[in-house]
Design a protein that fits this description.
alpha+beta; 2 domains; three-stranded antiparallel β-sheet; four-stranded antiparallel β-sheet; Jelly Rolls; globular; 1 helix; 9 strands; single chain; 148 residues
């Protein structure tokens, strides 16, 4: 029986080597599927990202702004990831300037800072938004336009 166990060791070693190799190939393949879009510690106006306290509540949505349309002045109380799917949106941040985000752009939107998104193009703008909020926190709230 002992010689059988000794003879089985090389077979088991080869089996484990192949199973480890398969896992590492799966891992490499999975990594090859990833295309990083954004990695940051600050939002678009260089404020540090701060997560709200409380029970997490993640919300994702598609925002569509028609040609000539606006989001209206608003703020975000929670971190907000934005990915422009189609079109281009011009965002006015008041005295922090105006920026244009085109399709395939990704940002962490400004928190607690009034801003207004405008579609100056001739086609709808479609934006994927992911709010990293918490129960009781507002994802977006109307705000007054800054004094000019």
């Amino acid at each position: 029986m002992t010689s059988f166990r000794l003879a089985l060791l090389p077979v088991l070693a080869i089996a484990f080597a192949f199973s480890g190799s398969a896992r590492s190939e799966e891992s490499v393949s999975y990594q090859n599927l990833l295309t990083p879009l954004l990695e940051t510690e600050t939002d678009i106006i260089d404020q540090p990202i701060v997560y709200p306290t409380g029970t997490p509540k993640i919300t994702s949505a598609i925002v569509t702004i028609p040609p000539g349309g606006e989001t209206g002045w608003h703020t975000h109380e929670v971190p907000l990831y934005v990915y422009i799917l189609d079109g281009a949106v011009t965002v006015d941040y008041g005295d922090k300037g105006t920026r244009v985000y085109e399709a395939n752009s990704s940002i962490m939107e400004a928190m607690d800072w009034p801003h207004n998104g405008i579609n100056k193009g001739s086609e709808p703008v479609r934006i994927l938004v992911v709010y990293m909020g918490a129960e009781g926190k507002t994802n977006a709230a109307p705000a007054d336009a800054p004094q000019q």
